[in-house]
Amino acid sequence: MSNLFDRSSQQEFTWQSKHIKFFLDLKGIGPSAVEKIIEINPDVEQWDREYVASQSTNYEKTMHLLKDVEEIPSLKELNIDEVVHFKHPLYPKKLLSMKKNKPLLLWYAGNLNIEKSTAVVGSRKIIPETAEVVEEFVRKASSLNLSIISGLANGVDEKAHISALENNSKTVAVLPSSLDNILPQSNRGLAKEIVENEGLLITEYQPGSPRNPDKSNYTERNRIQAGLSDLVFIAQSGIPGGTMTTAKHAIDNERKIITYSSKNNIEEYAGNRYLTTPLNESFDFTKMNFTKSQISTLLNKEFLADFIFEDINEINLNSIL
What we know:
Layout: H1 17-24, H2 31-40, H3 49-55, H4 59-65, E1 83-85, H5 93-96, E2 105-110, E3 117-122, H6 128-143, E4 147-150, H7 156-166, E5 171-174, H8 188-196, E6 200-203, H9 215-227, E7 231-236, H10 242-252, E8 256-260, H11 270-275, H12 292-298, E9 307-309, H13 317-320
Parallel strand pairs: 3-4, 3-7, 4-5, 5-6, 7-8, 8-9
Antiparallel strand pairs: 1-2, 2-6
């Protein structure tokens, strides 16, 4: 069933964060469906379940999902100084270019303004070789006024944030938990320092979320790290590893990947070696769950990584940007 008359173009956007949160909290409705509902009915004051269902590709399914939402109830106001929705002018622009599953709501502390940026990601068990590379990479990135995006985890993330602060560069920590539950606890002081130095903490998890986040929160967080960045630097990664999910999100969202290629053939750099292995028909694409379409496109590249270096002094970020 479909209504040929689409009135959405005649409506102004009037949704607030509280309305988006209400729909995201409904069972059975994911972020993509909520975004579609907003597109169909941008004026929340004219909310009409029948109209939304009639404009969707599956009337019966949409009516079932929205069966308890004949009218939007009176909702608790959210603190606009702590939460931003995807239609707000302050919402990070790079996230709007994500190919799928961009966060519709973000809770934040600090400065939301992010211009040119690079993610710096890697293993929690950082080795001295990687630590030196991260420090020098961040120094070079900071000299070009790049913001440093990472995840506040121990290891590479922590080193990236600290190096950014030492180089007076803006740094952004994307959290797998809520702002009232900074994890890991050992980096709560670092989180405070980031905000005090014009940096940013950002998360899609609202205050009061479970104290022990689901494992999926960490991989979901990784897509935001990639989405916020112009470049994604893979400093150290094993296989499997959360860092590899960030690399996959970078490829999915057409972000450039820079990878350190160590001369040491050790397990700590197994993911780095994978990203720097020549691509051909025998390459094992299954490690990153690529689609057939993606594989076809990737076979036109030499490596999964766009830029590879063995010596940090070789890399010229200016020419990459």
